[in-house]
Amino acid sequence: MLGVSLLLAGCSPEMQRGFLPDAAGVTNHTDRIIGLWSTSWIVLLAVGALSWGLMGWALIVYRRRKGETGLPAQMRYNMPIETLFTVVPLILVIGFFAFTARDMTAIEAKTENPDVYIEVIGKQWSWDFNYVDDNVYYSGIQAQVVGNQDNVLETLPTLYLPVGKTVQIDLSSRDVIHSFWVVEFLYKKDMFPGHTNSMFFTPLKEGTYVGKCAELCGEYHSMMLFNVEVVSQSEYDSQMSSLAAQGNVGQLSTEYDRNQNLPGGDPAIRG
């Protein structure tokens, strides 16, 4: 009965995606990430089951029998077994490396002439968004907990993305190291002061997604949250117009950075 239950559990959607969030089809990369992760843990589970089985077999076959005394016959080495224990892990490591490198190359591939170009700037403890193409910006504050915590998500900065459009996001920091993580996108990238990292992807499914900083960055790190709204092109254009109507025209620049003495900064400030 237990074996049947485990077999049936293996058919569940949660098992099929390796207990990752239900992110299939969210971006052009999520299915690839789910496939790599699920295949990896299935292979490792099979290796583990084989190892446990061999250990159990050895415990039973070579156990001390009633009436036996002294030490069993000792062997200095066993070439076939030692070769097996060397070759199999080597094949696994090479295989994991090859498939991971293949998928990372695809995920990190630069998109030439993306439809949308956005700058995301991390700061203690919130986010600034520059919508470069539309020359508007949004400056956020950290999550606000007032009374009932159920409304926290409503106070968060929201990054808008048009569905089905190629996106480039440049990531930087105003102060310390942060990490940009949209949970259902199954990918995160660090944000460093004085350095810019980039992400390239296409959101494929409209909806609201949870984002957070994934790098411990100080006292209120846990409150450094944001939302991502993947919307239609018309709704995206409406949001850009709304930001412009609020007076958020232009781009937030490095003048608000706390670290003004980094390499590449103003020579006058560096002295």
Q: In the CATH hierarchy, what is the class of the largest domain?
A: Mainly Beta
Q: Can you tell me the CATH architecture of the largest domain?
A: Sandwich
Regarding quaternary structure, what we see is single chain
Using the coordinates shown, work out and report the CATH topology of the largest domain: Immunoglobulin-like
How many discrete structural domains?
2
Count up the helices. Answer: 6
Look at the structure and name the CATH superfamily of the largest domain: Cupredoxins -  blue copper proteins
Mean pLDDT over the residues: 87
Beta strand % = 15-25%
Question: How would you sum up the global shape?
Answer: elongated
First-residue to last-residue Cα separation: 75 Å
What does this protein look like?
This protein has helices spanning 2-9, 13-16, 30-61, 79-108, 233-245, 267-270; strands at residues 116-123, 126-131, 136-139, 158-162, 167-173, 178-182, 187-191, 197-201, 207-213, 225-231. The longest helix has 32 residues, at 30-61. The chain is an alpha+beta fold and 271 residues long. A hairpin with a 4-residue loop joins strand 2 and strand 3 (136-139). Helix content is 34%, strand content 22%. It folds into 2 domains: 12-58 and 77-108, no CATH class; 116-253, Immunoglobulin-like. It starts with a helix and ends with a helix. The strands form 2 sheets. Strands 3-2-1-5-8 form a 5-stranded mixed sheet. Strands 4-10-9-6-7 form a 5-stranded mixed sheet.
